[in-house]
Fold:
Amino acid sequence: MMSFISPIFLLGLLGVSLPIIIHMVGRRRAPVYRFSAIEFILRSQKKVEARLRLEQLLLLLLRAAIIALIAMALAKPMLRAGPVLAPDAPSCSVLIVDNSYSMGYYFKGETLLERDKEWARQFVGSLSPSDEACVITVFPTPDAAPQPTADKDQTLDSIARIKPSYYTTDLSALLKRALSIIGFSKKQVKRILLFTDLTKNGWNPDAMKEVKKSLDKNSVRLHIVDVSEGKPLSNVSVSVLEYEYDWTRKDEQVLLKATVDNFTDTPIKDLLIKARIGEEEVAQGFLQIEPWAAATKEFLLDIPRDNNAWGSVEIPADSLPVDDKRFFTIPNVKDIRVLVVDGAPSINMYQSATFYLEKALNPARLHTSHIHPTVMNTQEVQSANFKEYDLIVLANVEKLDATKVSELKTYTAEGGNVFFCLGDKVRPEYYDLNFTGLVPRLRMEVEFPREKPLEFGTLDTTHTLLKVFARERKDVLSSPHFYKVFLVEPEMGGNITNIINYSNGTPALIEMPYGKGRSITFTSTINRDWTDLPVKPIFLPLVQQICRYMTNNLIESTTRDVLVGENWELPFYSRDKIDKIEVLDPKGNLGRPVSDKSMPAEPPIFSDTHFPGVYKLRGGETAISFAVNVDHGEGNLSKISASEVENLLGKERISFRISSPVKGAEGAVEGKRLWPTLLLAALCVLCLEAFVSWRRS
Amino acid sequence: MKEQDTIQWYDPAILSKISNMTLRARTVVEGTFSGIHKRPHKGSSIEFLEHKEYSPGDEIKHIDWKVLARSDKYHLKQFEDETNLKAYILLDTSGSMGYGSGAMTKLEYSRTLAACLSYLLLMQSDATGLIIFGGDIIKYIPPRTKSSHLQVLIQALEGLKAQGKSDISGVLEKLTEKMSRRSLVIIISDLFEDAGKVIKKLRQLRKRRCEVILFQVLDSHELDFPFDELTLFESMEDSSQVMAEPRAIKDAYQAELGNFIETLRQGCLENQIDHWLINTSTPLDHALLKYLTTRERLSHARITARL
Structure:
């Protein structure tokens, strides 16, 4: 869209008619001359008449064009999406002060954020009383958007209160927020000033399409201020920490892999890298890293068996110290005592109901596993004290003594866990009568031909118990065959969850809460009587996961980075205990995890992860800690070029500065100036006119 | 007529130069008065030319008896008779002749030229007549040899006004029958007419064995067309007008005029007519002198060739 700074000069366009008027007047005022050889004039006039008319018309057009072009040039046209306004027009400005952690970069003796704030202050200082402004940052992001105000002091105070954050830049989100704020403004000039280091991170091309549309729609101009003055920034960061941990064993050694990125143009030699457990330095090494490459250092660490082991890996501080250190935590491994009641013991141990189960719970020797199974038959269990165990497994148990049934119910109601595995000894009427509430109502056994057995249906790997299988191949998960299963009555209401179904939709693994505890029922056998599951690869991890899930001891085999600002899901929870749990952040602040009551299946989350470091849970049954780290993507300080930004947002609505902006100065560059082009065009037309005139004469 | 009025027609400075020249007609014409023009008939002349052997039929009175006494042979004396010429000066006074960009209009220039020629011819005892015409014959003064006839001619030339449309071809057609054979016809005009028609009529004159001299008098502005700004050109002979940009049409105009003059020149050349283009910016004496010199040179050449 073309606009004019001095539209009054457009009146000059009326001058287009001047050549025509001059032509007409000239004809009227032409001198009369009595001449003798008029016959020759007439004849020559006829000869050149057509050419003369064409030339006259051409000259007329050229002269009109010269006047039009000069008039247009004087009106100072600009190509832009909105009207060109005088520099002192009332304006509304939204200042985006990038306080992402990359702005903690030390540049010319101060951090980029300090420069950000200073330049933002200078801009606010240049505003006139009728101008409005407000400030937004990467973090914090208050629910209520700030409103532009003409109160300079308030805006300056907002700038002064900006602190460095550990968040990464999401410019599209920031720009959308700024646009939503400025969209309501009635001021003539609307501008967004983005004070940033102009690093590539944060410029999401897909999200920017929407921003571009919004800029055009709201006639907003975006001024991008590169506080690093367009200079390249270099950085070295600890980008990834991984550990390898065999969760079937209770070994104390952990292989920790630390990856360091060199975001510079020069190779790095002998970079010192240190690993700490807690505050104690336990290992160190050196890295050689090529420019724009990464190198990994492996540490074999002896992790103490006590709870809440945590540590960090760090390199010497550079211009951006935030990402020179990264934290990790090693999950606490707790001993789990399991009572396995074998309802169908056999002389042939392979045929007993619990042989495979015991092996799966304790695959290695007893002293190397943290799961301690105790196998008893129905007679032996009479003397057992359920409360000494974290989990009771009833495998194909026909019946228990009434006192034991009562004890079992009490045990479960008080927070215990029972895992029922069915089989040919199980009588539905007995179970329905004695284990009401612990086991779903059993209907009958159903047998399936060998050639057409049941399989597991599609596993819901979003369930906490099944998350570890998310990366397993589908055929591995569905490989077990089931030849006989129990059908159960569908339960209406309650908190019954079918964790796994068979391929025909029949429930396979059913979870039921009972008092403070819970039970899980497996509707087939846990030995090979009705299924080949025990000899399939999925058996061991599935049994281990059921065990840990039920005893709230789920652990992961590797680290999962919780980044600053991300939610952390509690790996276990008891709904009645959740209110007592608190989270202590690295700065000593206490927070609470929250649970979405509308979605009871979803675990509670903790979202106040605003700082990197180790967060510790308090008040739970198990001491748990987790590490929060900065997003290493922000550590890559490669700059996005002006042309790339223009490709994303269009040339018309953006401008770049590498110096402190002041109002007016930034207004002068709004839009593309067309008048130099018009003047040049006028000059060209003038030359053409002179040439045609010269040819005529 | 006042003395100074007469002087303006034949300025002594001009006439002194011209009087040293001899105007000789290209063609020998018959005349009743002796003059410096040669007469084709031999015998009754006062200037001896040659001897011719007698042959039967010759007049005996021309026998040179002295030669007979000396050589006993009959020879006849032959004489070259001086005879006068009948000259007609035709002066165009049409409207276009009134144009003049300098001190003199074409008509003023032309009548001065006519006066000079009249004076010369009468000085040579040639009978000189004057025909003033425009669209038609305006005045006809028959040829006379008396020196006092000059005053008659001068009087006729005075007070002329350029007006009306010219019709040279029409006038020539009327005059062709009136004019004596072998006379000298001098036409002074800008000849702004159809060149073809004019040539055709001149050819008829030539058929009557008339010597024709054509003085085409043009103004320097007519030749150069030095105008610049947009101008409404008005005809001097009728009411026609034309708005023109002189700079734009100058080339075309000069081409047209050049073609016209060239057509005339070519026509004259083919019919043995002397065509002289005179620019009114040229001093009259120079133009006249140039013409007379050329005429004399041509005349001598012809006599030499005949001898």
Q: What stands out?
A: The domain at 86-306 of chain B is CATH 3.40.50.410 (Rossmann fold). Confidence is low (pLDDT under 50) at residues 1-37, 39-45 of chain B. Chain B is about 40% helix and 20% strand. Residues 1 and 28 of chain B are 35 Å apart (CA to CA).
